[in-house]
Amino acid sequence: MTTYRIAVIGGTGPQGKGLGYRFARGGHTVVLGSRAAEKAEATAAEVTERLAGVEGAGTVTGATNADACGEADLVLLAVPYDGHDELVASLPLAGKVVISCVNPLAFDKRGAHGLVIDGGEGSAAESAQRLQPEATVVGAFHHVSAVTLWGDADFLDGEDILVVGDKAEAKEQVMELAASVTGRPGIDSGKLRLARQLEPLTAVLISINRKYKTHSGIRIHGV
Amino acid sequence: MTTYRIAVIGGTGPQGKGLGYRFARGGHTVVLGSRAAEKAEATAAEVTERLAGVEGAGTVTGATNADACGEADLVLLAVPYDGHDELVASLPLAGKVVISCVNPLAFDKRGAHGLVIDGGEGSAAESAQRLQPEATVVGAFHHVSAVTLWGDADFLDGEDILVVGDKAEAKEQVMELAASVTGRPGIDSGKLRLARQLEPLTAVLISINRKYKTHSGIRIHGV
Predict the structure, then answer these.
(1) What is the dihedral of CA A193, A199, A200, A203, to 10 degrees?
(2) Are residues B204 and A162, on separate chains, in Cβ contact within 8 Å?
């Protein structure tokens, strides 16, 4: 298995922290990024403590979002959609594989639903690609719950990671990385534009979670 | 179990025929609808033959789409999105529970993707509800493959039927009906507007099918 140096932008949020924990558990070196380095370092210490005794775990450190990108092979965007474009545009991402798990959602009294991006012909992942044309953006990890990621299971082996992207090599790397979360490679789910479908699907999972008091995830049958 | 009289609009297409077969297998009375009654009758004869020896199966007959609606408790719309609005507006659906499994998709050389309805703030199911305000529209059965439906498995027990709707009673009926396909009730997946998320998800499954040479389906983990 290739081990990567992975920056997690928004690494102090529940999704970023949970995925960072899983990546490090899988042997990857993780730098959690945040607006303030001290906050990132505090979360990194918490994740490191959680990894105590896990054989083969990678190290977890903290830095500012921009510094975290520095030597990373892969950069995970795990930030809220609000402010996403400005932040992504500001980061040094040229030449890197950038993974977006960003879910642009809207909430009202009827629950969660998908936020419409570019009149329905866009997604957070495609926005990131447009803002960083020299990066290679891959969409993945949209549907794993922060609670489950931070939980005690060795792997989220009842769930699948759906991976979309336009460059085969980058997509393969992310599919391989997904094994640190589910115990097996992610599923090649097509071109990057299908992030339009994956991102707002999270609104459906949130509805299911509310109804059934659970932390649901997606499994693809037949692969 | 309640048994229903179910009209399948577009009942000679692969999805309509497959779902009609499963509903009849589950004991429901099915009327397959088509533009021409004779075509519907021929498909009904084919499904009836397929049901030979299935204990407790309901009858399957054919009629024009409009006639099929006549005495139905539930009406399934299993038609292509092209021409959908005109057809739905023409049917006698007032007072009925209408199930939409319609997937508005677009195809180009990069594969399938979701067709944008009403600038991203609509779906086939919502269009049907708007065109038939005295009907109660429920979205379901978007993700089951026609091939699997027509296949030999007793139930598609590795898959889930996601059900969205705004009226609890109608949604419950459809969740119960889903048991004739998967062997267990469908999953309450929220309000009707989430059909915006369910319908184009089929484009992702089509991409997966192409890549992995399979007939994939959706399973919700954690419910």
Answers:
(1) 170
(2) yes
Q: Which positions in chain B have a beta carbon within 8 angstroms of at least one beta carbon in chain A?
A: 110-114, 116-117, 119-121, 148, 158-159, 162, 164, 187-191, 193-194, 196-198, 200-201, 203-205, 207-208, 211-212, 214-223
Instruction: Please name the member of A121, A159, A198 whose beta carbon is closest to the beta carbon of B204.
Output: A198
> What digits encode the pLDDT tens for the residues A146-168?
999 999 999 999 999 999 999 99
pLDDT digits (tens, 9 = 90+) for A131-150: 999 999 999 999 999 999 99
In-domain check, residue A217 = no
Its domain, for residue A134, covers: 5-212
Beta-carbon contacts of A65 under 8 Å, excluding residues fewer than 6 positions away, are A7, A9, A10, A33, A34, A35, A87, A91
* Residue A14 belongs to some domain of the structure: yes
Which CATH number goes with the domain that contains B112? 3.40.50.720
Local confidence pLDDT in tens for the 223 residues of chain B:
789 999 999 999 999 999 999 999 999 999 999 999 999 999 999 999 999 999 999 999 999 999 999 989 999 999 999 999 999 999 999 999 999 999 999 999 999 999 999 999 999 999 999 999 999 999 999 999 999 999 999 999 999 999 999 999 999 999 999 999 999 999 999 999 999 999 999 999 999 999 999 999 999 999 9
Q: Which residues pair with B121 in a beta bridge?
A: none
End-to-end C-alpha distance for chain A, whole angstroms: 22
What is the separation of C-alpha B53 from the centre of its chain, rounded to a whole number of angstroms? 25
A219:B220 CB<8 A: yes
Residue with tokens 């059909």: B195
Instruction: Give the one of B111, B214, B220 whose C-beta lies nearest to A191's C-beta.
Output: B111
Amino acid of residue A121: E
Min Cα–Cα distance to chain A from B45, Å: 30
Counting the structural domains of chain B, the total is 1
Phi/psi at A139 (5° precision) = -100, 135
What does the alpha-carbon distance between residue B159 and residue B161 come to, in Å, rounded to a whole number? 7
Tell me if B131 is assigned to some domain: yes
Is a pLDDT exceeding 90 seen at residue A207? yes
- pTM for the complete prediction? 0.97
Task: Report the C-alpha gap between A133 and A22 in whole angstroms.
Answer: 28
